Amino acid sequence: MERLDTGIEELNKKIEGYPKGRTILITGTTGSGKTILGLHFVNKACADGKNCKMIATEEIPEDILIQAESIGLQLRKYCENGNLIIDRVYEERTGHAKEVLAFGIEQLDELQSNLLGLLERIPDNTDIVVIDNIGVFTLNMSVNEFRAQFDSLIFGLSKKNITTVIIMDESANERMGGIALYSVYGILKTSIKDNPYTGARERLLEILKIRNTKIPLDPIKFEITSKGIVLLKKEKT
Question: Fewer Cβ atoms within 10 A, N terminus or C terminus of the chain?
């Protein structure tokens, strides 16, 4: 199976890259590096000349570009040359919510819960998709409804042979009973934990699953630097 560069050399060595045409789920707590993993991937894909799409559900495009620049990733030039399209789902969601409230309507609108509608936003010539954060669609969905829509979304992306990274906050993952983990080809989990020996806070990356791939079982410490994510070597005991 062909693999695509994750954008992080040390991570490529751990998992051989992301399987082409499959979906990887990145889940984790707030501030643990989920979005930055996605930015690394889309940056490398754009550099390789692939047609990329980011579906931003919680940030405006300018904020995403600024965040990328803060870690040395120049996504702005790819937006300008057409390699990268950042979909303004966040702005649409907030704008529509204001309109709904203005009319005194309390029922959830389709834009807030229609996962399958995301497929219609992806051009046929797209190679790479990053969705950040899919958790916002789950706030008023039942577990059964989410599973049905999520599976259909992944199937639709696979039929288009699109390599996809889906980011989902851990609170949404837990609210949906963790069922998203069963539908995807691979799972990365980020977290921030206190080291019981040093008292320092550390970021950890766990590779929970990548089918047909030998993966490390132990959590990997990493840092977010001015050059992005750096995986740390395991300390000798």
Answer: C
d(CA 24, CA 165) in angstroms, rounded, equals 5
Q: Determine, yes or no, domain membership for 236.
A: no
CB atoms within 10 A of CB 66: 13
Percent of the chain with pLDDT over 90: 77
In whole angstroms, how far apart are CA 128 and each of 24, 139, 198? 12, 26, 40
**27 touches 168 (CB < 8 A):** yes
Residue 110 has pLDDT above 60, yes or no: no
Q: How far apart (Å, rounded) are the C-alpha atoms in residues 157 and 101?
A: 33
The pTM score is 0.90
* Total number of domains constituting the chain: 1
Element (H, E) at 189: strand 186-194
- Weakest-pLDDT range from 85-94, 146-155, 216-225: 85-94
Q: What is the CATH number of the domain that holds 173?
A: 3.40.50.300
Residue 41 CB partners (closer than 8 Å, separation 6+): 4, 5, 6, 7, 18, 128, 130, 165
From residue 80, alpha-carbon distances to 46, 60, 122 in Å are 12, 16, 18
pLDDT of 147-191, one tens digit each?
999 999 999 999 999 999 999 999 999 999 999 999 999 999 999
